[in-house]
User: Fold these one by one.
Assistant:
Number 1:
Amino acid sequence: MRFRLSFSYVYFLCFIIVMFLTSPTHAETKKISVVASFSIIGDLVQQVGGDHVGITMIVGPEEDAHVYQPSPADARKITQAEIIFINGLGFEGWLSRLINATKSKGTVVDLSSKIKARQTQGEIDPHVWQDVNNVKIYIQEICQALIAIDPNNGADYQKNSQLYIEKLSKLDNEIVESLTNIPLDDRRVVSTHDAFGYFSARYGVAFLAPQGVSTEAEASARDIARIIDAAKAQKVKAVFLENVADPRLARRISAETNARLGGTLYSDSLTGAKGDGATYLEMMRHNVKEIVRALKP
């Protein structure tokens, strides 16, 4: 009889332990399966989603979304996603075909849908994130989309969004302040492709570029000659490399205009974790630091 009681007691204890460990409080919480089209969006979604999201990116750090070629692995990512965040405005021209081909049931969120896009030479400029205030809209869109799919953690998404928007406001003020002592007439630089139009409009730095808003089409000899002539006429002080573009073009323009060769600007992609632009905030601070250093008398 005593053995029976001992065995029953041990069995009862085991049952209680199993129930305790598998309760919602202690079980591993299921994360929302998120796909971000490229590295900058991946970082922004992480800032809002925190531990509640599991993010995979299609176009990773140091890769160019303009010319990216999707793989079968990317198709699997799309198929498994509950929600897919994209930039839109034609930035990921290949992505809609990929989503349609996989017959994905994930919710597609176009983060730039509420932003008034600029146009240049008849093309829509998709590089909306180069104006920090536009990224505030991205964050709001991410927050709303995550709450819609996961309302139980809505308070966390709202809190994270508000904290990050405050960081963005601080960053915007920093950029304006950093450029204050550089006269407007001296704020003229050359970049490889036309990726900084929104930055230019917000912060008053004029960018000349031989390539259009996409790196997909190479700059023609006429385009290069036009930029060289304009750079000479406007006494451009610096020519910048880009982390997603061939550096030879920038070096040629620098040599032919006698403008100093500035550092590398991060236009369409973050760097790896050990780089100077591993997050959006770090990327923008790096770019401004390089611009100010090149333009200082």
Note: The longest helix spans residues 154-179.
Number 2:
Amino acid sequence: MDIIRLKKEHLAQMRALLSVFAEAFEDEAAYLSSQPDDDYLTDLLDQPGFFALAATIEGAVVGGLVAYELRKFEQKRSEVYIYDLAVLESHRRQGVATALIEYLKPLARNRGAWVIFVQADHGDDPAIALYTKLGVREDVLHFDIGVDSSSNMPTTTI
């Protein structure tokens, strides 16, 4: 297995990673139906605070993660947020996810990050077990706030 940080010259691998996310998360609508154009992806992959890592076997993408650097204001440091991490079912329980996180650590450190953080959904026991093995658990609440009235975010009436 090889792990590579995807950069602007890796558009094909980035699109393959989107397919991995679609399959692993069973969410083709989010990852395949409205993919950004090449210019958008090239620009994103060229950002130093954007991390797209692909785990490949014989050139085929079998897993990966996407993370973002969040520069802090209270101190001169950053945090890195793993937004998505997935491994194809046929390659799970083989250390791929752990290897991806380990690969991210020095990249994060080189950007001035003091911590990497990630969320897991209740009931996603394999992810919770992995992250518990690698870090310290915090139980927090997550809220999605739509940015306009036409947003298709869930609404609550009070």
Note: The chain has one domain: 2-134.
Number 3:
Amino acid sequence: MSLTFSILIACLLLVLSLIDWRTFLLPDWGTFSLMGVGFLLNFFHIYPYGWQESVLGLLCGYGLIWLANFIYRYIKGQDGMGMGDAKLLAGLGACYGISLLPIILLGACLIGLAGGILWLQIKGQSLRSPFPFGPYLALSGVLIGNYSLYF
């Protein structure tokens, strides 16, 4: 049963990633759906993390990105990340709990470093240009989250 939900979450993350690639936006309908599904999967014990860890993952996932953006905005005077990324990490936290958030975020940063540089090179832009971070969060979440569930 949890495999079916894992596939559905992966499909939702794929759709969100494609939208983010094209528009640099993560729609609320997708990120809020991920949060709700993640919480329900843990509340009904379909996923093993429990509702408390799901809620903490949701809150900390959003809070980590919000705090990083707040500090960046204070230093640079502009936003460094969109809050869609914060909502996406909150959704991943709701799915996979607070304990996996640091690993998911580290994985997204490492994948995003390589992928972002490649993205900017393909687009012919400088390293100061923005690139979508949501696809890297999604990929890291799917890989690490599913690895923790099934291996």
Note: Residues 2-150 form one domain.
Number 4:
Amino acid sequence: MIISTCHERLSEEEFVKPIVAITKERKIVHYLELDKVKVDELIIICGTALADDEYLKHLGLFRFLKDFKHPVLGICSGMQIIAMVFGGKLARKTEIGMVKVKHSHRDRLLEGIGEAYCLHNNSILLPPGFIEIAKSEDCIQAIKHKEKPMYGIMFHPEVRNPELLDRFIKLGLNLKQ
């Protein structure tokens, strides 16, 4: 399942549809409709436009993540949502364009990723229960929950690193077996 965090539906053309094309996933739910659906499968929480932070007013819709057992990947705003739900904080930090990604902890999901495309005004401070697995010069680029198959990445793999999305889907399939 793909969760859109886009306030403006037009932004889904840039932030959701490329993920649909890469993953071949067809089940898309807007975050404002989360209380109307049963979420019981692998999810990708997509990013949104640079000036769109409307999702921060609706973090309660994402509380289910605290008890969620299935794989989760939060991209940009999705990572911010994960961090906030788990007690982290946002830090104001703008990154636009390509950044060098330095691995702070070895993780299969990020194998081979040395550069990534960023488009964000907020970064995160590491929430309790997570480890930092990659960073740029200016902010945390990837986190992983210590016990759950839950990841957050600040960069946009749909732009430059689509293999990360494939790896995440395979991770979810392997956990089902």
Note: The beta strands are 2-4, 28-30, 43-45, 72-75, 89-100, 102-103, 115-125, 130-135, 140-145, 150-153.
